[in-house]
Amino acid sequence: MNRMSRFNVTAIALGFAFLYLPILLLIIYSFNESKLVTVWAGFSTKWYREVWNNQGLMDAAWVTIRVGLLAATVATVLGTLAALALTRFTKFRGRTLFSGMVYAPLVMPDVIIGLSLLLLFVAAGFDRGFWTITMAHITLTMCFVTVVVQSRLLSMDRSIEEAAMDLGATPLKTFLQVTLPVIAPAVVSGWMLAFTLSLDDLVIANFTSGPGATTLPMKIYSQVRLGVTPEINAVSTILVAIVATGVIIASVLTKRREVQRRRDEQAAFAQ
Amino acid sequence: MTKLSNALFNRLVIAIPYIWLIIFFMVPFFIVLRISFSQTAIAMPPYLPVFSLSDGWQGFWDNIGQLSFDNYIWLTEDALYINAYISSLTIAFISTCLTLLIGYPIAYGMARAPTSIRPTLLMLVILPFWTSFLIRVYAWIAILKPEGFLNQFLQAIGIIDDPLIILNTNIAVYIGIVYSYLPFMVLPLYSTLEKMDESLIEAAGDLGCPPLKAFWTITFPLSLPGVIAGFLLVFIPTVGEFVIPDLLGGSSTLMIGKTLWTEFNANRDWPVSAAVAIILLLVLVIPIAIFQNAQAKAAQQ
Amino acid sequence: MKSLGSIRRSFAPWNDSSAKPYISFKNVTKRFGDFTAVDDLSLDIYNREFFALLGASGCGKSTLLRMLAGFETPTSGQIILDGQDLSQTPPYRRPVNMMFQSYALFPHMTVEKNIGFGLKQDGMPKDQIAYRVAQMLKLVKLEKFASRKPHQLSGGQRQRVALARSLAKQPKVLLLDEPLGALDKKLREETQFELMDLQQDLGLTFVVVTHDQEEAMTMADRIAVMSAGKVVQVATPAEIYEAPNSRFVADFIGDVNIFDGNVVSSEGGKTQIAVSEDLTIVAEQNGSGPASGAAAFAIRPEKVRIAREAPANPGFNAVKGEIWDIGYLGDMTIYIVKLASGQTVRASRLNASRELENPIGYDEEVWVSFDDNAGVVLKD
Domains in chain B: how many in total? Predict the structure, then answer.
């Protein structure tokens, strides 16, 4: 064990260096004075001001956030219902097809999802733009929500639902008063996952968007193809900071709740 | 009243997501399938025949008659497509193997780390997954380009004199894939390795088995379910990858996701891209079937 | 005031042919796929009875309880409660409540809210709920814990919350699924008596599922011993112990010695069974023994005597053997005696006097004997 531990420490250290160094470099050079992203020329926040003044980027960011909020919310409702259907109704007509459709988008390449949805929107004569991106993102992200919520539903003690019914709660009331509050943390993390996936998506948005609706990843992509710029570094840094803050706050809160819970339990048994 | 609302509730729980998936998953799939049998046309939409309710039954049958396998035949005749499929599979396989090689020691180290810091390590592995994929790929451009950080570093310590050309080659694609998909490999490996009883290794040692041999005869075979899961979690999405080959790869980097994108957006050949998509799906069904088979076997045991 | 024991002794509706059963299982069968969990089972339970379903895991006792609660629907047969067929009633409309093995407390609700949950579902006004909850908290002595969440309670306290919650709606029948399974031994023994007192005070019918025979013997008025989806015997704890109707029950409840043999004669209220060359058993006849052919004689260890001296009538209900093993438990000693036939016999002896000098020791030759009415004759 001890002999292995030096190897273990090295593996972890190199692994995390590999994972974090590129992002770290990107963040550092977003504060670079020079227009060249790989040559350090002094500290500056001018690229952040540039981003703020870049109307195109700000518009794209606004579209992305609106799509993300709406898509994540609808996807969370649909995904939770799908998870409920898959765990609580073991027999209904077309269940195999249903579970197939739920899991398939998880492994399907984005290009195929994007292409097929675009062809649907064309066939249906929809104007492409904000709403088509949102619908496409709902379809993609609801499957991830389903997986997250489903695993919580499966690990949950079913007898508390039975207890609620035993005490006179109808299935609907049981769901609203007992099941939903208990699975709430999973539903929230499903929402967060859906939101980040929507923020992140380039390929599907590119297929399903139309004139007038450009998302931030689409904007970043079109600029990146022209070359690396400190402005993109600045945008990236903001995005990374927002997501990292969100995830860290969420995990600190979860951890604190767990610690509190453990303390309560110890106190209860010490009586 | 309540009885009715309960039945309605149960019905709706299934029906709402079901109908959504039918409309936005099933129907588009059939549209792709249908268009893959159509002809290219200079029109909007750019393919023939266009089915329309106003044609009636006769029109419908006429249109059916116009469908053909031409696009698929075209795919087999043009070496570009076959090479793109083969190259996608090769690149995906090589980079998945590299991801496994790099991910395994990390997962192993994490699983043997003190219990108190394991949740933090786990969060650190997951965190990059939450940050934008595009940004993480973008970050590598600045590192890999001729005047980038890697070459600066290597030249500074005197290993090389002339900058290495890495960006816009397959090597950059491998690096990009390993980097982007590493969490997907580490997580399943970590969860199998963490569950493993450490006393097994102690027992092997007690019976006279040296550590390295114990690893190959005990730890590795027992972690195989994690290896398989991680392998497929990386391999499957990699085959259809678009962003990484597009940003890091060169003009000679052939990957089917990129080919499809170009065919569709640049050449506007919808029927051929639909056929490419159908074939890509079929190519992916095979590893997924293998995966499910392996899972079913594991579940039986 | 009468003692609990005297009330319970006089309570025996199952012997009264005019008494109407409160709960009736009529030819109930439950299948899960190919597996038959409950097999054509019929059973009557009376009002105010403390009834135990006892059996090993997988015998169908929990399924039976869950069918009564409404979580499972019988494949065939009827379940009747207080004259009403319950088969088609969903769990949330049945006048029965259940205390779950895992307690199934709602983790996001306080103790108060947990106990008041069922009352709220009935649409009871808030002030009445509060009054009733306070009453229940007092009953289970948890007044001080009203605003705690379940995870802030000890195991015993959680058990009492679960009990209070299931009693709050004043159900016609309380179902208890392994109610004491998660408690440690000392708490379990205390709680057994508390549950019995509670059942008497409230005058309710309790149906408890347990795999712990001691628990069932202590608490229940009657026990149904179950095996493979069927009820093997339904009787009072004393009858189950002293007069098991089958080898399975005799073996399942407590320790037992079983002698296999053949019926030699069966007359004058006595059955003679030839067991081996040196042993013939003469036993009082009872309901379940056969009149001829193969038979078994079951006798509890505490009813087997051992002595150094030969009894008056050697060969009949007495046989010579050798001490093979001795287990000294303090209050009593268990002797394992090996007979010439090779069979071992377990005899327990209460250490009523401090026999420190000259106790029966290893390898000593002893006589094993018992009375005519000490055991029961069973079918093979």
Answer: 1
Q: Could you tell me which of A84, A154, A79 has the C-alpha nearest to residue B11?
A: A84
pLDDT tens track for C56-80:
988 999 999 999 999 999 999 999 9
* CA triple B24-B27-B32, angle to 5 deg: 110
pLDDT digits (tens, 9 = 90+) for B194-204: 888 888 888 88
Whether C2 shows a pLDDT value over 60: the answer reads no
Q: How many domains does chain A contain in total?
A: 1
Nearest to A82 by CA among A18, A175, A145, A156: A145
Q: How many CB atoms lie within 10 A of CB C80?
A: 16
Q: For residues C119 and B143, give the distance between their C-alpha atoms in angstroms, rounded to a whole number.
A: 66
CA angle, A43 then A46 then A47, to 5°: 105
Distance from CA of A166 to the nearest CA of C (A): 5
Rounded Cα gap, residues B273 and B270, in angstroms: 5
Q: In a 10 Å sphere around its CB, with 0-12 CB exposed, 13-18 middle and 19+ buried, how is residue C68 labelled?
A: buried
Strands (E), chain C: 23-32, 35-45, 50-54, 76-81, 84-85, 96-99, 173-177, 205-210, 222-227, 230-235, 257-267, 270-276, 279-284, 293-299, 305-307, 318-328, 332-339, 344-350, 365-369, 376-379
Q: Does B46 touch chain A (CB under 8 A)?
A: no
Sign for the CA dihedral angle at C284, C285, C290, C291 comes to positive
Tokens for A167, please give them.
Answer: 């005490």
> In angstroms, rounded to a whole number, what is the distance separating the alpha carbons of residues B278 and A109?
11
Listed residue (B247, C12, B293, B132) closest to A242, CA to CA: B132
Give Cα C163 distance to the centre of its chain: 20
Query: What's the domain count of chain C?
Result: 2
Q: Which residues of A touch C101 (CB under 8 A)?
A: 159
Nearest to A112 among B2, B31, B281 (CB): B281
> Which of A21, A23, A9 minimizes the C-alpha distance to B106?
A9
CA distances from C208 to B73, C18, C177, C254 (A): 72, 25, 6, 20
Name the strand (E) or helix (H) holding B125: helix B118-130
Which residue reads 């765990």 in tokens? A87
* Pairwise CA distance, residues C347 & B110, whole Å: 59
Q: Is the domain of C206 the same as that of C321?
A: no
Q: Domain residues for C176? A: 4-95+171-247
Task: Report the 10 Å Cβ neighbour count for A269.
Answer: 12
Q: Domain span at residue B260?
A: 71-300
Size of interface A-B (CB pairs under 8 A): 235
Look up the CATH number of the domain holding residue A163: 1.10.3720.10
Binary contact (B25, A139; C-beta < 8 A): yes
Digit-coded pLDDT (tens) for A104-152: 888 788 889 999 999 999 888 888 899 999 999 999 999 999 999 999 9
Residue A234 to residue A242: CA distance in whole angstroms: 12
In a domain, C183, yes or no: yes
Distance between CA atoms of A118 and B32, rounded to whole angstroms? 10
CB B262 within 8 Å of CB B242: no
Q: What count of other Cβ atoms lies within 10 Å of the Cβ of residue B269?
A: 18
Residue A98 within any structural domain of the chain: yes
**Structural Rg of chain C based on CA atoms:** 25
> In this structure, what token pair is assigned to residue A104?
């398939």
Q: How far apart are CA B38 and CA B49, in angstroms?
A: 6
Q: Which of B29, B113, B136 sits opposite A23 (nearest CB)?
A: B136
Count of C-beta atoms within a 10 Å radius of residue B22:
14
Which of A66-70, A87-91, B133-137 holds the top average pLDDT?
A66-70
Q: Cα–Cα–Cα angle for A220, A224, A225, nearest 5°?
A: 125
Contact A116 B131 (CB under 8 A): no
β-sheet bridge partners, residue C326: C335
> CB count, 10 Å around CB of B298?
12
